[in-house]
Amino acid sequence: MAALWLARASSQMARRAARRHPSLRRPSRHGGAPASPWLLGPAAQPPVLGSPPLPAAERAFRRGFCSVRSFAGESSAAAASDEEEPEKGFAGGDQQALDFPGGKVSLVAEMNFLPESHGERISCYRVLDDDGRTISGSRFQEVSKEVALKMYSEMVTLQIMDNIFYEAQRQGRISFYLTSNGEEAINIASAAALSADDIVLPQYREPGVLLWRGFTLQEFANQCFGNNMDYGKGRQMPIHYGSNRLNYFTVSSPIATQLPQAVGAAYSLKMDKKDACAITYFGDGGTSEGDFHAALNFAAVMEAPVIFFCRNNGWAISTPTTEQFRSDGVVVRGQAYGIRGIRVDGNDALAVYSAVHAAREMAITEGRPILVEALTYRVGHHSTSDDSTKYRPVDEIEHWRTARDPISRYRKWVQGNDWWSDSEESELRNRVRKELLQAIQVAERMPKPPVSELFTDVYDQIPSNLQEQEQLLRDTIMKHPADYPTDVPV
Amino acid sequence: MKLDPTVCVFGEDVGHYGGSYKVTKGLADMFGDLRVLDTPIAENSFTGMGVGAGMKGLRPVVEGMNMGFLLLAYNQISNNCGMLHYTSGGQFKIPVVIRGPGGVGRQLGAEHSQRLESYFQSIPGLQMVACSTPYNAKGLMKAAIRSENPVVLFEHVLLYNLKEKIPDEEYVLCLEEAEMVRPGEHVTILTYSRMRYHVMQAAKTLVDKGYDPEVIDIRSLKPFDLHTIGNSIKKTHRVLIVEECMRTGGIGASLRSAIIDNFWDYLDAPIMCLSSQDVPTPYASTLEDATVVQPAQIVAAVEQICQ
């Protein structure tokens, strides 16, 4: 009912705005709107570099344009006066309620369509301002100095790891890599708010969660090089890390397949009554998959303790969010499934930490799923197979890489508390860099997995047909050694 | 489910409704709504849920209301079920059982009369079995649940009404073994699921005509029990495959090529394969009958092979 009231009220504003600026037409969806995802922000929010701020009237008009269609006809709209009070539409004139499958609903005589959007975008929870100072009046989950510093140093480690592995790919030393540039706060701060028993089902841009839990740089390098120390035994391409010891499910490339799996994992936690939740990460693009819909729906119906964490970074390879969905981002969809949600500034480490901490609490104690939408920006290319300057402006990327960098923003806060110094900074960066280069050298020199690992783990026990195939392969290698690499153990 | 608390059931209407073919009847009353879970209609997603739960240590039995609907779950079955044990380096296992009614029934229309054993055949990491009698249904189901690998268990819509006296106590059949239905000397007839009954019907006619067919229900569709099959071929030297799968790329096609690879020297005649037509199953009963293999065709085929 409140939505109908809102529809009515905002259409009043629209008509008032239209009367002041009669030349304004409802903007076409495919013509004028810039591709920037942040267009419909509230007036106070500075726009993304590259798009001019909207005139106030047009902004007001935009907020209301969606509900112009909510009245039955033009004549009734024109007839309503400026001074008319918004009708208390809760029960309309008709107090009757009826029973239907699903429960009682009250009836209304007027036909009103719910508008396609709330009008105002859902606001974003933020704790630190751009200069790393806590916003006055903000409430957040306190962190100890130890945790705060660990968060910072892991964010820096993740950044350096990304840069060095990316370079290694460019040098031809590994076949593929994808970075989490710009999303370090999401990775580390969300991981910090979880417990070691919480089950993580990543998409692929969340190695920071694994890093937080104790995966070493050497272990990362081993997976990227696919050597015989890789836990995946050289079977997956780089960045498809997995560790059952650290409760981090092996990365699987198809988008959003991990969402219903997370519901399954949460289901098992619920059956075992464990004090833990499942958390699954996905991007803005992943929300278009059918699995997103069904996973959220199931989780709500089953009351499963799972956190759905969406990294809305504005881009799904070359598809901007304006072409991905027409809703106000992802957070509004939670309500469609009966799931609580929050929108948070993904580049604000403390905000992400607090939101995930609270989400986890609710998920476990109340046995419910929670949706967290972290707004951020994918500073890097989608992967080493992509050049994003081909589809987005270089200055937009630069802006987010520098002015909106989550690491320097958090660093200002940590330094502001006198917990960190410049000398510690350079010492950390040097140490991590050295460690990484060392890990890469070691990983590169390690032998690759032997041919026998080609056929194991397809099933729990190797079946006879695979044994035959392995034997055949061995015989072929034996007969024609010149055709096979000498450094692969047979 | 009584023996192992990690076994659970997911599927549409499996709870108090008892399942579309009443396979899970009474289970929700015994084990509760959480262990016998009614899911919303999203096959890919509840199969995915099964994968996730399996990776965490449960043993879900996922029911497709009709096997045909599991085509929607193909992504989760192929990319995840089949693969994750391998790609995780053995760290995560997926001991799920995916089961449901399939095959050609009585005028259920094309979408409910799918023969899609062959679609799943190539997926590495999956095991496939087809049950055909109450006795082997119980044994194979128990074996599938106990297996550490993902198993697809094909049941047949027309076989649910079969009645047979079976032991009350626990027994587990081997997932990779074929079943000798009728020993014989003249020809090896390999079949599975509902076609077993058409073959046995044809066998009666054949016996009257003086033939002695050996009938083997292969049961294990992936991998094939080449040991039992091989021993039979070494004895009879003639093979007829009777399946409900389509001709193109069917189970029979793979079986034929496996037999040629392994037992070429023992064959005295080309392998014959009777499969269903490469058409969607029509609704009209006359057309539906003409789509699948009928006993008369089996008799004719044996007569031809044994010339």
TrEMBL record, chain A:
Swiss-Prot/TrEMBL cofactor(s): thiamine diphosphate
Single GO MF descriptor: branched-chain 2-oxo acid dehydrogenase activity
SUPFAM superfamilies referenced in this protein's UniProt entry, alphabetically: Thiamin diphosphate-binding fold (THDP-binding)
Keywords for the protein's UniProt record, in alphabetical order: Metal-binding, Mitochondrion, Oxidoreductase, Potassium, Transit peptide
Gene3D superfamilies: 3.40.50.970
Localization annotation: Mitochondrion matrix
GO CC annotation, single: mitochondrial matrix
Main location, first listed in the record: mitochondrion
Compositionally biased tracts (Basic residues): 16-29
Chemical reaction(s) catalysed: N(6)-[(R)-lipoyl]-L-lysyl-[protein] + 3-methyl-2-oxobutanoate + H(+) = N(6)-[(R)-S(8)-2-methylpropanoyldihydrolipoyl]-L-lysyl-[protein] + CO2
Complex and partners: Heterotetramer of alpha and beta chains.
Record-given protein name: 3-methyl-2-oxobutanoate dehydrogenase (2-methylpropanoyl-transferring)
Protein source organism: Digitaria exilis
Phylogenetic lineage: Eukaryota, Viridiplantae, Streptophyta, Embryophyta, Tracheophyta
UniProtKB/TrEMBL annotation, chain B:
Top-level taxon in the UniProt lineage: Eukaryota
SMART domains: Transket_pyr
Enzyme Commission number(s) of this protein: 1.2.4.1
UniProt keyword Nucleotide-binding present: no
Needed co-factor(s): thiamine diphosphate
Subcellular location: Plastid, Chloroplast
GO molecular function terms noted in the UniProt entry: metal ion binding; pyruvate dehydrogenase (acetyl-transferring) activity
Record's catalysed reaction(s): N(6)-[(R)-lipoyl]-L-lysyl-[protein] + pyruvate + H(+) = N(6)-[(R)-S(8)-acetyldihydrolipoyl]-L-lysyl-[protein] + CO2
Chief place of localization: plastid
Pfam families on file: Transket_pyr, Transketolase_C
GO CC annotation terms, alphabetical: chloroplast
Keywords annotated in UniProt: Chloroplast, Metal-binding, Oxidoreductase, Plastid, Potassium, Pyruvate, Thiamine pyrophosphate, Transit peptide
Domain Transketolase-like pyrimidine-binding: 1-162
Membrane-spanning residues: none
Record note on quaternary structure: Tetramer of 2 alpha and 2 beta subunits.
Function, in words: The pyruvate dehydrogenase complex catalyzes the overall conversion of pyruvate to acetyl-CoA and CO(2). It contains multiple copies of three enzymatic components: pyruvate dehydrogenase (E1), dihydrolipoamide acetyltransferase (E2) and lipoamide dehydrogenase (E3).
UniProt name for this protein: pyruvate dehydrogenase (acetyl-transferring)
Organism, as annotated: Digitaria exilis
